[in-house]
Amino acid sequence: MTKITTLTTCLFLAGLSVSLAAEDKADGWLSLFDGRTLMGWESSVDHPESFSIEDGAIKVNGRVAHLFYVGHQNHGQFRDFEFKAKVKTRKNSNSGIYFHTQWQDVSWPKTGYECQVNNSHSDWRRTGGLYGVQDVRNPPSKDDEWFDYYIKVQGKQVIIKINGQQVVDYTEGEQPEHLKETPGRKIGEGTFCLQAHDPGSTVYFKEIYARPL
To answer: Superfamily for 32-212?
Structure first.
């Protein structure tokens, strides 16, 4: 490939990227990740080294920690929203996407719900499930392949889709019996966070957007 052809291709892809970004913005989608840095995200202080950037994605690998969105979009707080991201897991990996949570310095988030990311880990709760509330047993996605993760929260209803397939439709009423000791586990308002589950898990996130409703 000639230098001119390479340059033309790069300019085309750059233009396409700008065009797509503009289209997303016009549709109300807000970018939460710039594809290059962790700007707008803050890790819990227990193991911040569990998060890094690799090939335009957030790489999650390491001891338990959580990466919270603290950026300027929508002042970092979302109530009714749509969320979308591209996700890829390696074999035997576990992670999660929390919503309606708040930054905390250590341990598992005490507020918000977790949307499971797990195609083959020993935990039987699979990708797309609303963890411990409406779980998924058969993964709708595969390891080593990018898949689309979509979450919609409106009122008390939570919809989760993987690659366009709806896997969860949950409307919060009375707390499930096993969650009654966790009063923060409820629909309200808050931010998003990504979970580092264990050193044996490697998960990637990119093209992360949210759209307030």
So the answer is: Exo-inulinase; domain 1 (2.60.120.560)
How is the chain split into domains, by residue range?
1-29, 32-212
Q: Are the CB atoms for 115 and 205 separated by under 8 Å?
A: no
φ and ψ at residue 204, rounded to 5 degrees: -120, 145
Instruction: Read off the pLDDT of residues 140-197 as tens digits, 9 standing for 90 and up.
Output: 999 999 999 999 999 999 999 999 999 999 998 866 676 666 667 889 999 999 999 9
Q: Per the confidence metrics, is the pTM higher than 0.70?
A: yes
3-state SS, the chain, equals CCHHHHHHHHHHHHHHHHHHHHHHHHCCCEECCCCCCCCCEEECCCCHHHEEEECCEEEEECCCEEEEECCCHHHHCECCEEEEEEEEECCCCCEEEEEEECCCCCCCCCCCEEEEECCCCCCCCCCCCECCCECCCCCCCCCCCCEEEEEEEECCEEEEEECCEEEEEEECCCCCHHHCCCCCCCCCCEEEEEEECCCCCEEEEEEEEEEEC
d(CA 143, CA 104) in angstroms, rounded, equals 30
How long, in residues, is the chain? 213
